[in-house]
Amino acid sequence: MSEQSKFLLSEKQIPSAWVNIIPHLKEPLELPVHPQTHKPLQAADLAPIFPMSLIEQEFSPQPEIDIPGEVLDIYKLWRPTPLCRARRLEKALDTPAHIYYKYEGTSPAGSHKPNTAVAQAYYNKKAGIKRLSTETGAGQWGSALALSCRMFGMDCTVYMVKVSYEQKPYRRMMMNAWGAEVFASPSNLTESGRRVLAEHPDSPGSLGIAISEAVEDAALHGDTNYSLGSVLNHVCLHQTVIGLEAKQQMALAGEEPDVVIGCFGGGTNYAGISIPYIMDNIEKGSKVRCMAVEPAACPTLTKGVFAYDFGDIAKLTPMLKMYTLGHDFVPPGIHAGGLRYPGASPLMSHLLKHGWAEARSVMQLPVFEAALQFARTEGILPAPESSHAIRAAIDEALEAKEEGKPRVILFNLSGHGHFDLASYDAYMTGKLSDYEYPSEEVARSMETLPKV
Ligand SMILES: *Cc1c(COP(=O)(O)O)cnc(C)c1O
Q1: Ligand 1 pocket, 140 CB below 6 A?
Q2: Is the CB of residue 123 less than 8 Å from the CB of residue 54?
Q3: Do the bridges between strand 83-85 and strand 6-7 make them parallel or antiparallel, or are there none, so unpaired?
């Protein structure tokens, strides 16, 4: 009999509730602060752009939040996602370690992002909202929200960073196919966009600018809300379906992970795979290592400081206590667009700060080397973002080999790389290089942090 490599659940085993780690925290979570008054943020401050249900989830003391039936019905299009043991990769590495991965690339948009996009569209629809606005960089979040709005019969407006709009047309076409309208940002549709264009007509755009445009659009239109694909507590909450399924599947495999790994942009796919394990560490004294992996070119967790900072360049967003490289940090053009955010989830930052999580950074070239090794053994062509987790998983397996000891490794494969072939091509033709963000630069942008 061949050895089992794939651990599948039935539709009935999709979790019926998301789990909320906030009530389990030993140290109180630092609250967001109003950008002008510097006072703790009130629910009413967020009401112009978010529905009350999501604002409540953002600060909820409930240990569990039921997943609404209509959301579950859409999850069923691709959930439960598979958990696989990477036997061919283990063999290629000649390691005694067991490597498992949870594959979120089976969603229609190709990443974990629809787990929260579907939920956010649902709660907005229930609140009577007709249209959602958002920003997107490389296009993964925009396509997840375009899909989700379509499922609930809502309109969707996406402000896409202009360089990506021009360089990555396929994600835009995918959003259009699902009926979203997509504008290159900066656009002349918003005051924020027009202000940038007046000064820099050739601006390539940035996530910070696109966020300002999407928030302004939502704030000015009563039937429109804003939706964010990462960083916030309610986004981490919705992603916990990943880890809850993975725990059931690891039980089917008859193993407990020693280390759980996720790549880290704003922190939410990592939150999804790790939170159920971190909760066991807090409540039951388990000792599962939970590791976030970020690019050395955007080393928020490993070189940033834990401080209050704004989420955008225009300083319109609330100040969040998080690991940050400074709100005016412009990340270099590495090929994992989804990991180029200079801030981090306050929740995951808090867990790291208090020793419930660990973080490391990896260079771009070894990441692509790991991505190809994975594609050539396991067959799946991973997203460059997800490949950061693969690099760390392989390094853990090689360390186990050196020690001559078994180790059980679980990582989240957050998405596929079918729209990232140009970066693979650049790597394979020797056009990529390594870049580590210098500590002196980090120190300089720290001087711009707000005094709170
Ligand atoms: C957006 C994205 C990420 C980074 O976002 P997180 O909030 O850190 O999860 C990682 N992987 C993929 C495939 C993405 O699309």
Answers
A1: yes
A2: yes
A3: antiparallel
Nearest residue CA, atom 2 of ligand 1? 338
In a domain, 50, yes or no: no
Residue 267 lies in a domain: yes
- Domain of 320, CATH number, reads 3.40.50.1100
CA distance 175 to 162: 15
Show the domain range for 370.
Answer: 5-13+68-110+234-448
Q: Confirm or reject: Cβ of 414 under 6 Å from ligand 1.
A: yes
Residue 137 in contact with ligand 1 by CB distance below 6 A = no
Q: What is the mean pLDDT of the chain?
A: 94
Query: Which residue has its alpha carbon closest to ligand 1 atom 14?
Result: 338
Q: Say if residue 108 is exposed, middle or buried (CB neighbours under 10 Å; 0-12, 13-18, 19+).
A: middle
* Residue 25: inside a domain: no
Within a domain: residue 161? no
Cβ–Cβ contacts within 10 Å for residue 343, how many?
26
63-90 burial, b for 16+ CB within 10 Å, e for fewer?
A: eebebeebbbebbeeebbbbbbbbbebb
- Report the domain count for the chain: 1
Look up the pTM and report it: 0.97
Whether residue 139 has pLDDT greater than 90: yes
Sequence-separated (6 or more) residues with CB below 8 Å from residue 186: 162, 192, 193, 194, 196, 197, 203, 205, 209, 213
Distance 431 CA to ligand 1 centre (A): 24
CB-CB neighbours of 2 under 10 Å: 5
d(CA 395, CA 389): 10
Cα–ligand 1 centroid distance for 36 (angstroms): 30
Average pLDDT estimate for 253-269: 98
CA of 116 to the centre of ligand 1 (A): 12
